[in-house]
Structure formats: C-alpha cells, structure tokens
Amino acid sequence: MTPTQVQWRRRVAGGVVVLLASVATAYVLDSLVRVVLWRSHWQPGLDALARYNKRFTSPSAVARAGKKGTSATAVHHVGRTSGKSYVTPVWGERVGDRFLIQLPYGTGVDWCRNVLAAGGCTLEQDGVRYDAVTPVIVPAAEARPHLRSAARRMQGIIGAEHYLRLDIRPADPAGEELPNPARVAEGVLKVPGMWISNVYLVETDGGLLLVDTGPGQTGRILRFIESIGRQPSDLRDIVLTHFDADHVGSAAALKARTGARVSIHALDAAVVAKEEPPRKRMLLVVILYKLLSRAVTADRFLADGDTIGGLRVVHVPGHTAGSIVLVRDDGVLFSGDALITDKHGTILPTDVLPAEDPDLAVRSAERIKALNPRIILPGHGAPWTAG
Q1: Residue 348 within any structural domain of the chain
Q2: I need a labelling partner for 125 at 20 to 30 A (CA). Which of 79, 281, 306, 309 fits?
Q3: What is the pTM of this model?
Q4: How many domains in the chain?
Q5: pLDDT tens, 45-72?
Q6: Which CATH number goes with the domain that contains 95?
C-alpha cells in the first residue's frame, strides 16, 4: 500500500469517527432537550417539539407502532375538520378493559382533540386492534397507581400531567380496514423510516417491485414487507434509478436475502458492480459510495423505452449517465434524483452540484416535467401531485 493510500484511508477513518461521534452527541442532546421540555410543561416548547416529531420523527415510529413485539401504541383517528384518516404513535398501556395514554405534549395535541371530538378511535397494540370509546382526560395522579412499574418510572422521568383514558373492546375483524399512511399512490407504498432517500414498494401482477433501496436498510425494508402481510420472497424486482450509494446501498443484501432481480440502466451498471469508480465531481459522493454500498451485479440492463413491472423506463442522464425515471400509465412517476422536491412536495430547481453533467441534468428535469405526470414520487422530498 502506498503512503498516499495509507493517508487517504486514515483520513476516511478519521472522518467516520467524527461522524459517529457527532451522531451520538446529537442523540444525547436531542434526548436531553426532550426531557427538559417535557418536565418544564412550557406549552410553546412542547408544541414546537410535537411539530418536529410530526414532520421528522413520526414516519419511522408510525411504521412500527402497534405491531407485534413493539412497545408503542398506534392511535387511528379521523381529523375533526379535514375528515382524513391519521395514525399517531403514543405511549399507551392497557389496564383491564381500559387504555391509559400518556400526554407529554399536553391535552391540546391534534390527535387527542380528534379522539375527544369523535368520541373514540381505533387502537392497535402488539398486533391487536381495539375499538376505544368514552375518552376522558384524567390527571396523572389518578392514572399512575394503575400503571406497571416501568410505565410509572417513565412517567416520573417525563413528568406528564395528564393521561387520556379510554374504554376498549376487541375490534370487529370484519370492520373497515385501517388506513395505511405509507400508501402514496394506488398500489404504491413508501417505506417509512428511511433516513436518507425515499424507497418505494410497488404492488405488481408479478409480485412486489422495489424502487431504490437506501443504505443499511435491508432489515427495515423486509420488516415493512412483512408488516403489510407479504413475505420477503414476494419481492421479485429491485429497480435502481441511478448508482448513488443512498439509493443502491442495500441492493446487494436484499438480492441475497430475497432472490430479487436487480435492474439498472446499462450506463450505471459497472459502477454498482464496483468495476468502475463513481463518475462524480464531488469527492464526498465518491467516499460515501465506497463506505455505504456493496458491489451488486445487475440481472437486467435497462434502456429508454423498456418496461418492468408495468413501469416504463425513461432515460434522463445528467445526475448520472444512467439516471432513469419510471412512469406508469396512470401518470405516477418515480423520479429518483433527476427531479426532487422539498418536505412540502414543491419541486426544487435542479441541484447541479452533485451532477455528472449539470447542463444535461437541467434538460432532463425539463423533459420529466414535459411528461405531464399526475404524481411525482421523488428520491428525496414529499410526493408532488398535479393541480
């Protein structure tokens, strides 16, 4: 190994250590801020924390809440003004024929007001559904004696002043299906909890198709597949929109675990197989690719005009030479990084900094818009809907 290679590896290792230390520090500070705000009962601060959770934390918590083997309870409720269905993860405990739900953010949070206005909701805990009625807010002093010791210790740390008490009965298994917050289009689910890029699961006649994979997300994706009543073996195709590590990082492991076929445009195939280095101007992108992805050999090379799983391939080079978007006949379009949005679903200007060919990336973004999609499901950001 040459001195230059040794120096480069030391720099990468040092960068990884700094990154991990930063993440650990951020986690500790986040936990400390939460406890301080909860115990302060300062409502503006609690409202801000609740909004933060709703936008950034809840998606991953929603995916796990209520499932067998998890501790969080899922509250399925309906907006008192919008009429829309929502799911909120909470700290709840069953006590006989009642549920007690801690209210660390106060009694005015939206989900609690929705339940009170409707006179009930559906609860889901450890894989079991309950119809919950007669909601009443009670002081913590009244609820505390009925809690298990672990829940009492949590209440002591958080210092919640109130609980929501509900009477429960087993839900009718033949009743209306619970709303699925992960469904972003007909037959399309967004895998919750992805920490860098969006991953979409598409239900097709031939089985399940995954659009991109995220790095280090194999277990989460497989658990999500099981949570919707399917098996990992039902995953038949993995389509990669381009070679960036935040989109292909879990492809090799998912292929090994499920036997799914991996497809990517021919111009990006050699990079994901690690036969060629990433062709990027940003050194950070190249480093992350080396750290966050494993080599995977594509089973199919895609080209403009091909179809896979009912999706038409459109070649949109620029971000990478082999960037593609996938278009369904009903106007649903998976745009990868060729066109992205913000957290509100607003289309953003093309980010030319990480692009292989900035001018071509801009022209490809305009080509995507000219396809007149009805729904755009981007690699980053919230879905965009026409009109």
Answers
A1: yes
A2: 79
A3: 0.59
A4: 2
A5: 667 766 776 666 556 677 778 887 777 8
A6: 2.30.110.10
